[in-house]
Fold this sequence. Notes:
This protein is mostly helical. Helices cover 76% and strands 0% of the residues. The mean pLDDT is 93.
Amino acid sequence: MTKQEEIDILQSLKGDTYFAxxxxxxxxxxxxxxxxxxxxxxxxxxxxxxAETLERINADLKKEFQQKIHDLGMELIKILDKGFxxxxxxxxxxxxxxxxxxxxxxxxxxxxxxxxxxDYMISKLP
Length: 126
């Protein structure tokens, strides 16, 4: 298939087609220009730029998550180094996930609810 044949096929996919619904006229024109210039077909297209942005966001979130886990682990080590302090550990977990998540987890796993948690739930009643 020649470059021109490929370009003609892409141009024919413009308008009211499933292809055009995803890529759009601007991306199709960019693909045609890329073929003409012997560039990678996806270069400069909106979907490619979105993918790059999402990959960057994903990498940043991964780093942030790893740092959060590291920090949580270090805080637990500090607390345990001072001697087992159940309240300090509970406060650390509550600060990270919130009391709502703790109560849901305990309920799901058939763990006892503390008086503090029960008081919290009662305080949320209308």
